[in-house]
Amino acid sequence: ADVYGIDHWGNDYFGLSDQGLVTAKTLTTQVPLMDIVQGMTERDLQMPVLLRIENILDAQIYRLNNAFRDAIKKLDYQATYRGVYPIKVNQQAQVVEEIADFGKRFKHGLEVGSKPEMIAALSTLTEPGSLIICNGYKDQEFVELGLQAVKLGFLCFFVIETPAELPIIIERSKQLNIEPLIGVRVKMTSKVSGHWNSTSGDRSVFGLSTSQLIQLVDRLKEADMLHCLQLLHCHLGSQIPNIREIRGGVVEACRYYADLCGEGAALSYIDFGGGLAVDYTGAQSNDSQSRNYNLEEYCTDIVDTLKNTLDEYDIKHPTIVTESGRATVAYSSILIFNILDVTKFEPIELPKIGDDEHQLLQDMREVLACLTLQKAQECYNDAHFYRDEIRELFKRGQVDLRTRSAAENLFLEILQQINKNLELMEHIPVDLEGLKESLADIYYGNFSLFQSLPDIWAIDQLFPIMPIHRLDEEPKRNAIIADITCDCDGKIDKFIGQQDVSSTLPLHELKDGEEYYVGVFLVGAYQETLGDLHNLFGDTNVVSVRLNDDSSFDFVKEIHGDTIADVLSYVEYEPKEMALRYRNTAERAVKEGRITARERQHMLKTYNASMHGYTYFERDE
Ligand code: PLP
User: Fold this and answer.
1) Is 486 one of the catalytic residues?
2) Among residues 115, 437, 495, 521, which is most buried (max CB within 10 A)?
3) Mean pLDDT (whole number) for 540-547
4) How many C-beta atoms lie closer than 10 Å to residue 576's C-beta?
5) If you take atom 8 of ligand 1, which residue's CA is the nearest one?
6) At the fourth CATH level, which superfamily is domain 6-50+333-344+440-561?
7) Secretion signal: which residues (predicted)?
8) Which one of 89, 188, 231, 321 would you pick to mutate in the ligand 1 pocket, going by the greatest count of ligand atoms within 8 A of its CB?
9) Closest CA to 294 of 279, 311, 273, 309
10) In the CATH scheme, what is the code of domain 78-324?
11) Measured in angstroms, how far is the CA atom of residue 196 from the centroid of ligand 1?
């Protein structure tokens, strides 16, 4: 059974094989992720690894462009679609280059929001006519780069976000004698739901108000440059779960578009920004981590609303631009890690205390003996009472450690028994509702939440998480997942279940001498960008693969993650100087007779190997 809901969130890119393995799929092939993991092991690429599947990125760009093309054709819309990818969503060179490469056939462009992103775009796109949308605050240098891009043949638009940008653009373009392509971002009042809804509304920090817009038009007229205003930009927010809100935004944008045309602007592009959501939970709902529409509906609704609204004003159809980031890259990356250890909340075999055990322990044994379905609540109360009494006595020195541990053990035994009975109960008493969670195992995963999955910590983002093998066995444990940072926030305790969000994840019992691998899916958007160096865990290893039609695959690229020397130098340590100082400490220990010279040598070797090794838990070879 699909315990983890892969058919709902997998978007046809992930599935299960008959052998109980998660597979990555294209239309013509599928490859078990475990085969790729095996290849990584053979190449000494240790866990955790961020796996990128090129075909999925390729397919998403294809699906997006094709869905717009189909909608345009079906609705007889009289202009084209041009997508751009916002670099900030995942600015890794590998990803941006792949997008530029796969997007060439659709003239898929790039969106930039800063000078570094602009420089990246200018050296990644090669085709004249490629679209570059410049959002963000632009200084003289940024503007000059953009004007030069126009000269090189790129369709490089400056989207005015604040009134202060316009004088710089007018002045620089006149000085360099290059006509700019200008866009304007309007402040949308259509409110959307979801996490990023402050992007729109009166208090949004982005875009021009209507009065600023009128000033902009007048200033451009004065400068005889109104014909340069060719693009209207509106972005309602990221991950918009409800299609009706997107439609509402399109109608509002059309009103701006029509009236700006009426003012004499030569508009011919309309840019709806990002917002196309990813169905992380697979629920197909208007919940913030889902979406109540599919890609085809998104494209059809935009084209249809645009056409109908603008036709009323008899306005020529503009080129449609969208800046889909999340939906473009989320699916193609998977974080894979191994489980290092498990803590269980179960009684263990303890040596008997003897005949003179404390009365409270005997009381607890009685609770256990008379436990029934009907008396579950009473036994639960008694177990707590006796356990707490023992803890008090221990604090006051009246019972010893062995007695206390026997009491804790009995307590767990009683709770586990009650937990087993819960499923049989018609009505679960309120006190017992959280019992399953409080007894869940803790599976320790070899990763840092803060480095690889920061949105789980920051905004309670849900990602599909599941083991990538052994799915032909029933997962009999209920667990939460902890990372290896020393931070109590470094844990995952909300999971996407078959029906609903759950606070535990079904996992398999670990097997001796065998790794257990867990995958976190749909992590291609924003996670790499926002990750940080908590506890100095650095970038993970990254592997890019391409799946072939015969179920084989190629390791296209591999990037070794940060070494300890790398992360230390990010926080201004000097690894060479550090090694020297450590050498001096060791040499002094030799001189003062605490260690031998040979021991010193061994220590320095260990130190150096560590310094140039991976920041994560490494298995002994
Ligand atoms: N364009 C702009 C201006 C944005 O601010 C964003 C992100 O919030 C995007 C595009 C990307 O949005 P998404 O990832 O929802 O596609």
Assistant:
1) yes
2) 521
3) 97
4) 11
5) 238
6) Lyase, Ornithine Decarboxylase; Chain A, domain 1 (2.40.37.10)
7) none
8) 89
9) 279
10) 3.20.20.10
11) 10
